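Chapter summary example.
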Amino acid sequence: MSKTLFEKIIAREIPAQIVYEDDLVIAFRDINPQAPTHVLLIPKKPISRIAEATPEDHKVLGHLMLKAGEVAEKLGLKQNGFRLVFNNGADAGEAVPHLHCHILGGRKMTWPPG
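The structure predicted for these 114 residues follows.
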């Protein structure tokens, strides 16, 4: 099976503007931003999507959520707010089959989303 785009970024085979990294997750700027600040936060462990995560993934998933808040704060989004988005499957807009959290901010968000 070939690597996903995100696995290639983790392996440094494709360049990315990395804003945060630790042993479990990596965050980098989206190449097609949908807000003034748009960062993707992904687990380094390849998990296709949230619906395919297993109970054994609870540590990395919890870590991902905590780091999403920390990365948003580092990017200056804490005061005015930010949105976290997880897409699951084609109908939800999933483009890369590797679980990822969109951290969006820097503008007022509308509801309902697209």
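To summarize the output: The first helix runs from residue 5 to 10.
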